[in-house]
Amino acid sequence: MASLNKVMIIGNLGSEPEMRFTPNGNPVTSFRIATNRVYTTAEGERKQETEWFTVVAWNKLAEQCNQFLTKGRLVYAEGRLRTRTWESQDGQKHYRTEIIANRVTFLDRQAAAPLPEEKVEEAEVGELEPEDIPF
Questions:
Q1: Of 76, 89, 66, 69, whose CA–CA distance to 8 is shortest?
Q2: pTM of the model
Q3: Cβ–Cβ under 8 Å, residues 78 and 128
Q4: Residue 124 resides in a domain
């Protein structure tokens, strides 16, 4: 049976991107994106929920995200979910679910051009156009 692990989010950067390098010298950049959901309760009260996502970009995409992204920018990020597990020094298990990005696009007016897409091993099904986004 086929499977799919694909995530698409649109939101604002909550902080400046952080770039570091693996022991092999590969660049990796991580940043946080906030998405908002506005809804009305059964009582008619309007509420807003914010969900935070950690996005990780590798290699050339990591360098470009570090260079061009800044706090507050509206971005589209696409990739796959990955959950990391590690044990702290006190023996507690920790989990972190991240989006491993293969595409990041600016959506605000300051820079409408997308960052070049990172080469990935999986075949691309097709390009995503703005009118294809379901919201």
A1: 76
A2: 0.74
A3: yes
A4: no
